[in-house]
UniProtKB/TrEMBL annotation:
<keyword id="KW-0378">Hydrolase</keyword>
<dbReference type="GO" id="GO:0005576">
    <property type="term" value="C:extracellular region"/>
</dbReference>
<dbReference type="InterPro" id="IPR002509">
    <property type="entry name" value="NODB_dom"/>
</dbReference>
<dbReference type="InterPro" id="IPR011990">
    <property type="entry name" value="TPR-like_helical_dom_sf"/>
</dbReference>
<dbReference type="GO" id="GO:0016810">
    <property type="term" value="F:hydrolase activity, acting on carbon-nitrogen (but not peptide) bonds"/>
</dbReference>
<dbReference type="InterPro" id="IPR018392">
    <property type="entry name" value="LysM"/>
</dbReference>
<keyword id="KW-0732">Signal</keyword>
<protein>
    <submittedName>
        <fullName>Polysaccharide deacetylase</fullName>
        <ecNumber>3.-.-.-</ecNumber>
    </submittedName>
</protein>
<dbReference type="Pfam" id="PF01522">
    <property type="entry name" value="Polysacc_deac_1"/>
</dbReference>
<dbReference type="InterPro" id="IPR051398">
    <property type="entry name" value="Polysacch_Deacetylase"/>
</dbReference>
<dbReference type="Pfam" id="PF01476">
    <property type="entry name" value="LysM"/>
</dbReference>
<dbReference type="InterPro" id="IPR011330">
    <property type="entry name" value="Glyco_hydro/deAcase_b/a-brl"/>
</dbReference>
<dbReference type="GO" id="GO:0005975">
    <property type="term" value="P:carbohydrate metabolic process"/>
</dbReference>
<feature type="domain" description="NodB homology">
    <location>
        <begin position="175"/>
        <end position="413"/>
    </location>
</feature>
């Protein structure tokens, strides 16, 4: 078949037949060989008003003045999107005459594949010093070494807004990392800011507003404005006074505690708006502590997300109000710093396709897209039919052939979405049965087949939330519901606030936060008469001895206990109870926790 009949010009065809670069034109010729009609009509001459535009890909030949950044600016409207072109094509720069594919969409949304998923580490700093390193003070030269390490090893520092785009099924560079600095100490301006500026790295300051302008050791609003105006520095909320949001103070009633938390959220936001002119969207929990009540209050007060200090990296399905951060300690070595930069987690048990296994997508080209479809590799087939469609549109191919490719895309999409819905239903069933691991696997499959399945994504994010579903009964009142849920009718104000003072209609459902740590249900003391009972001889029942390992009774698996002690160690450490932290980390290490030894090396 002659290529001119499809609108493919011979020079472009030759440029695209290098197997080391791109073989798509070979695929097109093979595909068209089986679909051209016996009576071929001449290709219509496209005009600016009638020519179709590619939906997902552009195909260009690089010119001498081109770079990844300039191509990103031209085709993606943002030179910072250069990484997207580089990752798809597997290149770090372009050379004149090179054939480059421009992906116009998220080709790996959320970083999910059948072999694993992307994770984004968030680093948390507090103090910086020119001379000393201790628990929370990172020495200036060590901080610069860490930034240099990120640059030299291909990590891309992204903003919090980019992180949240990723958490909502977007896409970020493969080795993304976020930098945050807590509290509002002046060393962030004098030490961290110049180094961040040198490397061009964005960062977020989480400030407690009552700390600002207090002394030479704290930031001033003028310094904060300079950082915001002269660098990619963002400012978000760390509350008003840095009080623990999960605990009432000694002698503080629940009602007073509730009002105090609302002030912590609202007043800090008001001050930042007044001083800097914008509304904050995110919060870092003081001491990293939160609970479901605090999360629900954040949502109610317009916050889009919040950060803990749980030392893990973040997948796309992490709850937006329980985002993990790794605290960077001054005594930590560069090797320990590297261990916090986990950007991928492998998974097993999923059907792997060609699209899942490549370092970069462009290199995988089938002889025929239909072969993958017949093998059941629909996700791979969809990608290449999209490429065929857009290449033909780009080169002005025959309308009938373009329409055939379009129909293939529609057919495969429909099939994938149907399969996604089946897996989503399975995930919901498992979730209702409280089988969270099976639910998670089913929801992963739903998102593999349909990366835009927002219901599956939303359900994945709620797996850790703790709510009690309440059905309103006839004659129910706020006090009755508060008594039923919290064991205290005086908590009626809480029910009213969280439900927006909605009218109580029988049959309606209310989702209220579980807050057992704060609320102890009241119980009536019942007087009982003493009844004389005869002594009954009972046989002694032999009980199995619980095995003890590392001085701990194995009441559950070693891995679970190791995780418990590791979490306790961090809790003690954040509360400055160093001896208790060491003890917990030693036990976690003995039980086999892989990161406990690192923490023991950090502790003084």
């Amino acid at each position: 078949m002659k290529t001119e009949r499809t609108g493919l010009q011979t020079p472009m065809y030759k440029n695209f037949n290098d197997p080391k670069k791109y073989l798509l034109s070979v695929l097109i010729v093979l595909m068209l060989g089986g679909c051209a009609s016996e009576r071929e009509l001449p290709s219509p001459v496209p005009t600016p008003t009638t020519r179709q535009q590619p939906s997902d890909f552009m195909f260009i030949t690089a010119k001498s003045q081109d770079s990844l950044a300039s191509l990103a600016l031209k085709y993606l409207n943002d030179e910072r999107e250069a990484w997207r072109i580089g990752e798809f094509n597997g290149i770090k720069q372009v050379t004149p005459g090179q054939q480059v594919i421009i992906p116009l969409f998220n080709f790996r949304p959320s970083g999910l594949t059948a072999v694993g998923y992307q994770t984004v580490p968030v680093l948390s700093y507090h103090h910086f010093s020119k001379t000393k390193s201790d628990k929370l003070h990172v020495r200036a030269d060590h901080f610069e070494q860490q930034m240099q390490f990120l640059k030299d090893n291909g990590y891309r520092v992204i903003t919090i807004d980019q992180l949240f785009d990723f958490l909502e099924l977007g896409q970020v560079p493969e080795k993304s990392v976020v930098i945050t600095i807590d509290d509002g100490w002046s060393d962030a301006y004098h030490i961290a800011f110049p180094i961040l500026n040198k490397y061009g790295f964005p960062a977020t300051l989480f400030i407690q507003t009552d700390l600002i302008n207090q002394s030479p050791k704290t930031l001033s609003w003028a310094q904060i404005r300079e950082m915001v105006n002269n660098n990619d520095i963002d400012v978000q909320c760390h509350t008003k006074t840095h009080r623990n949001l999960t605990k009432p103070k000694s002698g503080e009633s629940f009602a007073d505690y509730f009002e105090a938390i609302k002030r912590e959220l609202d007043e800090a936001r008001r001050v930042i708006k007044q001083q800097l002119g914008f509304n904050v969207k995110y919060l870092a929990y003081p001491y990293g502590d939160t609970n479901q009540l605090v999360v629900d209050l954040l949502k109610k007060h317009g916050y889009h997300g919040a950060f803990t200090v749980k030392r893990e990296s973040n997948p796309f399905f992490v709850n937006n109000y329980r985002i993990n951060r790794a605290m960077i300690y001054g005594a930590s070595h560069l090797k320990n710093f590297e261990k916090t930069l986990k950007t991928f987690k492998g998974i097993k048990g999923f059907a792997v396709e060609q699209i899942d296994q490549a370092k970069f997508i462009r290199i995988i080209l089938p002889k025929q897209a239909d072969q993958y479809y017949k093998k059941g590799q629909w996700r791979t087939a969809l990608l290449y039919w999209k490429m065929i469609r857009d290449f033909l549109i780009f080169k002005g191919g025959e309308r009938a052939v373009i329409n055939k490719a379009k129909q293939k895309v529609v057919t495969i999409k429909r099939k994938l979405r149907s399969q996604a819905n089946v897996h989503f239903k399975q995930g919901k069933d498992f979730y209702q049965k409280k089988d969270k691991e099976s639910a998670k696997a089913a929801l992963f499959r739903a998102l593999l087949f349909n990366p835009e399945h927002k219901q599956a994504h939303r359900l994945l994010k709620t797996l850790l939330e703790k709510h009690k579903l309440v059905i309103v009964k006839p004659n129910d009142t706020l006090k009755k519901i508060a008594q039923r849920v919290y064991g205290d009718s005086n908590k009626d104000f809480l029910v009213a606030y969280l439900t927006g003072n909605a009218d109580l209609i029988p049959g309606m459902s209310l989702s209220l936060p579980v807050i057992e740590p704060l609320v102890e249900p009241k119980t009536k003391k019942v007087k009982t008469k003493k009844v004389k009972t005869k002594k009954v001889k009972t046989k002694k029942v032999k009980t199995k001895k619980v095995k003890t390992v590392c001085g701990v009774k194995l009441t559950k698996s070693k891995d679970s206990l190791a995780n418990d002690y590791y979490a306790s160690g961090h809790k003690y450490f954040n509360d400055n109870q160093i001896s208790q932290a060491k003890s917990a980390f030693r036990t976690a290490k003995c039980l086999g926790h892989s990161e406990a030894a690192e923490m023991l090396n950090v502790l003084p």
